[in-house]
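Late entry, written up from scratch paper. The run itself happened at the end of the previous shift, but nothing got recorded in the book at the time, so transcribing now.
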Amino acid sequence: MDVGSIAEYIARRAELPDKVVMSNPSAEAQYRRLVYVRKSAGFQREAYTQTQVFHKNLTAEELGGELDEAFAGYRQVNMFYSDRTAEIKKSKSGKMMLSEGKAAGAAKTHDVSHDRVKQYVIPEGTVVPPLVDMGIFTKEGRIVASMHDKFRQINRFVEIVEDAADCLPKNRPIRILDFGCGKSYLTFILYYYFTKIRGADVRITGLDLKADVIRNCNEAARRYGYENLSFAVGDIGGYRSDEPADMVVTLHACDTATDYALFHAVSEHAKLILSVPCCQHEMNKAMSTESMPLIGRYGIVKERMAALMTDAIRANLLTACGYKTQVLEFVDLSHTPKNLLIRATACLQPKSVRERALSEAEELMRTFGYEQKLYALLRESGRLESTAELLKK
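Output as recorded:
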């Protein structure tokens, strides 16, 4: 059955849908999927990219126009009512065809709250000793009123880990190394997640230069009964271990310390790498902007461009070394503007992907007359040469 527009269909039914899903995006679509969920005060739009979701609130009156405008970038829309479903597909000629059916026993009462309960990996109501000590949970496992943001941030980190954790060993203990662990808030949470939620056997080592901090962390691990979590004083560049790490975490290792941590992870063939870079001065000091003077004219612009380009180079170099690499948005406990997280999982990358990643990184460095530290470490160790040989095969 032909239908003029989505707004017309909704008006004809004289009933608002509980949920609307737009899928099958065209090349011009900004998002891979749009979801509209009915709320007490209207609707909430969830716009999904490959790695993020963005929210927007709409009134009931705005819904029809919003759907028709958004549908320009999609080929299919599904609407869910309490008693039936409706599907509208767009033909190549632009004609919209409607089909309806009964709800398949899944007509759920729609959520009536904009603040609906999210199913967190670490839920409220569970007594987690580190979260109690951090002041995020009460002794009964309830969230302290002023700590909701930090609670969400911690769960966001755990979600990022959970999405990639299946690449880690299942038939032996998982070895995890946390470079520059500091006070180790998230290190303790990692141990809790793997042992209590995932039921995995893990061995986690935190490494930092501050002896007093390491002493406090070891005392806390003993107090919590975390037998396989330990901390040591040491420098990232000189750290050696008898057992290679399966997972390497480096959160806010300053400037090139991040590069040494990533190099260590690649050298040990870590299966999962999580890195939140910090204080990135190297490229900002060394890069030449003569060919692009506008970038160098404003100090803060140059600083941020240098940080972003450094992370792009790092991500590409990890891809060239055989990792599936993503740069995700991550906000840490201190609300720092340094909110990018590099996540890399070991995989069999096609030759063309690895070759292109290395070429792009080298081209960017040539443009700004600069050799990035991770690139230099990989080149000096011969790992880029071995990568090049692999690319020829």
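Confidence is low (pLDDT under 50) at residues 105-117, 333-337.
(Scratch paper discarded after transcription.)
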